[in-house]
Amino acid sequence: MEDFKKALEGALGRKYIDIIVEQVAGAPGRFDSLYALTRHEETKIAWRAAWACEKLSILLPSLLMDKREELMLRAMQCPHGGTRRLLLNILHHLPVLKPVNAAFFDFCLEGMLSPAESASGQAVCMKLAYDICLEEPELTGELEAYLENMEPEYYTAAVQCARNNILKKIRK
């Protein structure tokens, strides 16, 4: 864990995150050391570790499958917007956990509308709510109502685009 911590403390860009991801992909037994750093008290280290884990959620989702419930709880409690967005992105890359966590679905509905959430956070909350609806179709009407009642002019173009794309998928 100490070597990952040292790497995450220094000057770091995408290239270095990719190197960490490659190291874990080559030795999956090292994943727990990296994942533990997503809880580091220093925000910069936690955020960067979450960034590497987000990339791993695409490359090797099996590493994170048993952490879905924990990731949901952490995302709902995370005070740092950047880390929260990364946790939500990780969840978006993983299959929805069944039974569906109703509190997390509500969190996604609130997050997609919250002016306190970043545009990328709002968009990923929308996508996660839609992912949940694919597993629990009876929730689709609620998501559609929320999306239809959004006032587009209060949201960025990216959020409006995510909203429109999800509404198109719902109405197919």
Question: How does this structure look, described?
Answer:
There is one protein chain. With 172 residues, the chain is mostly helical. It has a domain at 96-171. It is built from 10 helices and no strands. It has helices at 2-9, 14-26, 31-36, 43-59, 68-77, 81-93, 102-113, 119-135, 140-149, 157-171. Helix 5 packs antiparallel against helix 6 (81-93). The radius of gyration is 17 Å and the shape is globular. The model has no long low-confidence stretch (mean pLDDT 94).
Summarize the structure.
The chain has ten helices and no strands. It has helices at residues 2-9, 14-26, 31-36, 43-59, 68-77, 81-93, 102-113, 119-135, 140-149, 157-171.
Alpha-carbon distance between the two ends:
47 Å
Task: Pick out the low-confidence regions.
Answer: none
Radius of gyration: 17 Å
The biggest beta sheet reads: none
Provide the helix percentage.
over 70%
Number of helices: 10
Order of helices and strands: HHHHHHHHHH
**Fraction of residues in β-strands:** under 5%
Shape: globular
